[in-house]
Amino acid sequence: METTSRAGARSTAGGAPGSRRAVEGYLRATFPWYGLDDAFTGPRWLMQVGTAADDTVQHGSTGHGDEPSIRPEAPGAEKERFAAVVTVAASPVRRSGDGTGVLDATTVSSAAWLAGSGLLVSTWPAQLDHSLRDDWLDQQTETAFELADDLNGSAWSVLSLPVDGVPTPFHYRESEFGWVLAGSTGPAGAGVHIGAYGRGMSAYGLGFSVIEDIRSYAAE
Prior knowledge:
The protein is an alpha+beta fold. The chain contains three helices and twelve strands; from the N terminus they run E-H-E-E-E-E-E-E-H-H-E-E-E-E-E. The longest helix is centred in the middle third of the chain and has 16 residues, at about 135-150. The two termini are about 30 Å apart.
């Protein structure tokens, strides 16, 4: 999936400029965004969207709970509880809008890869020197890509979670850094692919639903 990331800032109350800029990318999407369902009552916030070469929105993430501090030595980092939900537009192989190339199809593996890499950039081992982080991240990212490409492998188990109230199978795995899961909504070729990752918050009790108004995440 050929995309480029657009970082969005954590939203702030009161309609701050950073909040408005962040939500604009989400509003340009032609697919529905997913987040945790109403059973989750904690903070919700915007993360980032990813675009294709022709600038169409292809995927994005929303955060729930504590915003990760990233640095493991940060005060209270070991007590952080968060879950991020990744929504990926389901699409076949297609020409880019500007006619300059071909965009890969998106699959459940796309959601698993984005969730796995998202978890990695949210944390790294406390004993790892900061100067070695990039090398470690490259190695772990390659591993996450290989795992996402083999969802039927032994690293993954099956977990059923509700999506819009309907039990839905997800591929699920745990690591020392947290957990990752990925699945799809609707019949094959329709709906969207959902990925999620988190730490300190169990995946087993989660449920997902369409976000009726993504701007509500910018108002948290």
